[in-house]
Write a structure and sequence with these properties.
The strands form seven sheets. The protein has an eight-stranded antiparallel sheet with strand order 10-9-3-2-13-1-15-14. By secondary structure, it is mainly β. Helix content is 12%, strand content 34%. A hairpin with a 4-residue loop joins strand 14 and strand 15. The longest helix is centred in the first third of the chain and has 15 residues. The protein contains six helices and 24 strands.
């Protein structure tokens, strides 16, 4: 497994499957970015570094890189195994969808989370005669109200050794990035301006002390450092090879946390324990010159009952708790 740290030089924009129509309100950027964005950016960067044109690659005239990044029009032989935030030399991942806090009032500031009791979803006992298609339902028992933490970023050290209180081991999205609205004009297939077709999109700007870290399942031929173009507008990001932020790979737990999005197909859906709403991803197929079929992905932070992907790591139970 290999890790890279990416530092954008400008804002980033990552589209989902929602259309961007002239005159509509701003299209929100997805964050963290979709898996396909990272995979495509890495494959493109490898071709550029090897001096191979897209035309040569599409024609099958670049066999020396096909074993590393796959053939044109086929899935890459490597997987995205993690998406982290690095802030002040500390690493954070999306919080598990099975984690909640017990609170009477919704937290607003970071310090509002620190003194709240941390809860985790438990399996609903079958003795209650309640069943679902997944056989067992997760539930959370709270004294006041159970508020999910799935929108937060949790420090990796805390994920590996969780405690009953969060403390300073979290990041709010406002500590990771700012949102900037950008207005542009529609273009046709020949890059000519389409009269009257203005649109607005919300871009992501990472804060000055924040970078993205991604894990890959194997070497891709990417040089130890360089640049990649990321997102819908091909924004430049500097990257460097990073040391592995995960130090423990124990496998004595009943649940597994996805550190990166996982494709929502039949092989994984049967093992979902807790998850946020799936994200719909489309994209553009360069080989066919047409839109790709829409796919559903389970976001990072999804909790499974089995290790369904290379992106899954064991999720220990809270101190004194059971799963």
């Amino acid at each position: 497994m290999i890790y890279y740290e990416l530092t954008p030089l400008d804002t980033l924009f990552f589209r989902g499957a929602l259309p961007m129509e002239a005159g509509q309100l701003a299209a929100a950027s997805l964050f963290p970015p979709p898996v396909s964005v990272f995979i495509g950016a890495i494959r493109t960067a490898v071709l550029h570094q090897q001096g191979i044109s897209p035309q040569m690659y599409a024609a099958g005239k670049a066999p020396r890189v096909e074993s590393l990044i796959g053939k044109h029009g086929e899935h890459a032989p490597f997987e995205l195994t993690a998406v982290f935030i690095k802030k002040n030399n500390r690493y954070f991942a999306q919080a598990p969808a099975s984690w909640y806090i017990d609170t009477l009032k919704k937290p607003i500031r970071k310090e509002d989370y620190a003194d709240k009791k941390l809860l985790e979803a438990q399996r609903l006992s079958s003795c209650l005669d309640m069943y679902s298609s997944e056989h067992s339902l997760p539930f959370v028992k709270a004294e006041y109200e159970a508020l999910p933490l799935s929108s937060l970023w949790i420090e990796l050290s805390f994920l590996q050794q969780p405690k009953e209180r969060l403390g300073e081991h979290i990041l709010l999205n406002s500590e990771v990035y700012a949102v900037e609205n950008r207005t542009g004009i529609g273009l046709d297939s020949n890059r000519h301006v389409l009269e009257g077709q203005l649109y607005t999109a919300s871009h992501i700007r990472l804060l000055d002390d924040v970078s993205l870290c991604v894990g890959l399942s194997q070497e891709t031929g990417l040089q130890p450092e360089g640049v990649v173009r990321l997102g819908g507008e091909n924004r430049i990001c500097r990257y460097t090879t990073n040391s592995a932020p995960i130090t423990s790979h124990g496998d004595n737990t009943a649940l597994y946390l996805a550190l990166a999005p996982v494709k929502a197909d039949e092989s994984v859906l049967a093992h979902v324990f807790c998850a946020k709403k799936p994200v719909e991803i489309a994209g553009w197929d360069l080989q066919k010159g047409f839109h790709k079929p829409t796919e559903s992905w389970l976001p990072a932070g999804t909790v499974f009952t089995q290790k369904c992907s290379e992106a899954c790591i064991p999720l220990p139970s809270l101190a004194g708790g059971t799963t």
